[in-house]
Amino acid sequence: MYPQYGSYGMKNQWFELQSVSDSQININPITNITVDPFEEIVWCGYGNGKIKSYLSPIMQRHTSFMAHTSEVREILVEENGIISLSSDNLRYHSKGGLLQLSFSNDDMRALGCMEFTNQRRNEVLMGGNCPSMFVFDLDSGRLVKQITIESGIMSLAKGKLLATGG
C-alpha cells in the first residue's frame, strides 16, 4: 500500500511505522486509540475530553476538538462520523469535529465501553461499572433498550457473538 515504507503488516511481523510526540501527553494522557476502517486515520481520545485524529501513515495531525468535559473512554467510527463515550455521556461528531448528537441519562454512570450491535453501525451497546447496559439508536437519537445486569462490565468485543467481561 505504501511502497516507500517497504512491506509491512505481514503475518506475525510488526514494526513501528511512525510515532507521534505530543507535548501535552503527560498532562492529558491518551485514554483510547481507534483506527478508522473507512479512511487512513487514527483517532485518539484524551483524559481531558479532547479527540485528535492523525493521517496515516505519516501521523500528521488532522483534527482536534473537545468532545467531552471528562476523559474519553471509548471511540467507535462509522462512515460519516465518530461516536465517543465518557463516563456519563454518548456523543456523535462529524469527522471534522462538529457535534451532531449528545445523549445522557440519569442511569448512565461509570460507563467505560461500547460496541456496535449490527453491520449497519447505527446501534450502539454501552456498559460499564453500573447495573445496566444501554442500547442506543443513532438514527433516531433515542435510547431503545436498558438491560439490567448483575455486575458491571469493563470490556465489549463483537465478532459472531457479543462478549462482555467484568
Quote the average pLDDT: 85
Q: Strand order across the biggest sheet?
A: 1-2-3-4
User: Strand content of the residues, in percent?
Assistant: over 45%
Number of strands: 14
Estimated radius of gyration? 17 Å
For the report, how would you describe the main beta sheet? Answer: 4 strands, antiparallel
Q: Note the total helix count.
A: 0
Order of helices and strands: EEEEEEEEEEEEEE
Question: How does the helix and strand content classify structurally?
Answer: mainly beta
- Helix content, binned percent: under 10%
Low-confidence stretches: none
Q: Which overall shape is indicated by the principal axes computed on the Cα atoms?
A: globular
Distance between the termini: 38 Å
Describe the protein in words:
0% of the residues lie in helices and 47% in strands. It has strands spanning 30-35, 41-46, 50-55, 60-66, 74-78, 81-85, 90-94, 99-103, 111-116, 123-128, 132-137, 142-148, 155-158, 162-165. The strands form four sheets. A four-stranded antiparallel β-sheet has the order 1-2-3-4, with no helix packed on it. A four-stranded antiparallel β-sheet has the order 5-6-7-8, with no helix packed on it. Strands 9-10-11-12 form a four-stranded antiparallel β-sheet, with no helix packed on it. The mean pLDDT is 85.
List the helices and strands and how they pair.
Blueprint: E1 30-35, E2 41-46, E3 50-55, E4 60-66, E5 74-78, E6 81-85, E7 90-94, E8 99-103, E9 111-116, E10 123-128, E11 132-137, E12 142-148, E13 155-158, E14 162-165
Antiparallel strand pairs: 1-2, 2-3, 3-4, 5-6, 6-7, 7-8, 9-10, 10-11, 11-12, 13-14
